[in-house]
Amino acid sequence: MATKQRGRPRSFDRGKALEQATMEFWRHGYEATSVADLTRAMGIGAPSLYAAFGDKRALFEEVLSVYGATHGAFMTRAFAEEPTARRAVARLLREAAAEFTDPAHPYGCLVISAAANCTTEAIKVDLRERRNANLAAFESRIAADIAAGHLPEGTDARVLARFSGAVFQGMSQQARDGAGRAELEAVAEAAMLAWPEERTRGR
């Protein structure tokens, strides 16, 4: 007599289901996305969702991790690959204009838009900390360029970082409100006019 196999293999593609969950959270935000919305989009039942991902909050945390490594990775690449803060931010804003208006996925930035109308304190704190971490990275890179002589000595790293973050976040919202790529590219170019020009060491 054949031994009955314990458990049952998953009948869905976990990666594909996670991508569908990402689209739902991105489109509607954390608070407005229900478990029923998620299971419908992912093509699985609630028991399968809980078994594979945990609860809604745990699923969202995994979504954020995947988003940061895929759709949102252009920020990390810009700062890793560009030699100065000015060039990194210019590239970041230029690429944001393209990413935020790409019709292949919901408009804007998931980390920014998912926070809209969110009343779950743990999620609000997590998203705020992620945004503040980005600002801190901007400020650190700008401060390093001031110290290296690439930016004028009197440059206020904190203000410039917050300004750049405000432009980035505003571009996300404007994309969701219907702004096109060319319009946001123009915003990115205008924002860089507020930056001091780079200097060579010793100038």
Tags for this model:
single chain; 203 residues; mainly alpha; Arc Repressor Mutant, subunit A; Tetracycline Repressor, domain 2; 65% helix; 0% strand; elongated; disordered N terminus
Describe the structure in your own words.
- The chain is mainly alpha-helical.
- It folds into 2 domains: 14-54, Arc Repressor Mutant, subunit A (Orthogonal Bundle), CATH 1.10.10; 71-194, Tetracycline Repressor, domain 2 (Orthogonal Bundle), CATH 1.10.357.10.
- 65% of the residues lie in helices and 0% in strands.
- It has helices at residues 14-28, 35-42, 46-53, 56-69, 74-81, 85-99, 110-113, 121-148, 157-176, 181-192.
- The N and C termini lie far apart (85 Å).
The CATH class of the largest domain, by name, is Mainly Alpha
The helix fraction, in percent, is 55-70%
Q: CATH homologous superfamily of the largest domain, by name?
A: Tetracycline Repressor, domain 2
What number of domains? 2
Q: What spatial form do the alpha-carbon principal axes imply?
A: elongated
Approximately what portion of the residues adopt beta-strand conformation? Answer: under 5%
Order of helices and strands: HHHHHHHHHH
The CATH topology of the largest domain, please?
Tetracycline Repressor, domain 2
Number of strands: 0
Please summarize the sheet with the most strands.
none
Radius of gyration, Cα only, in angstroms?
A: 21 Å
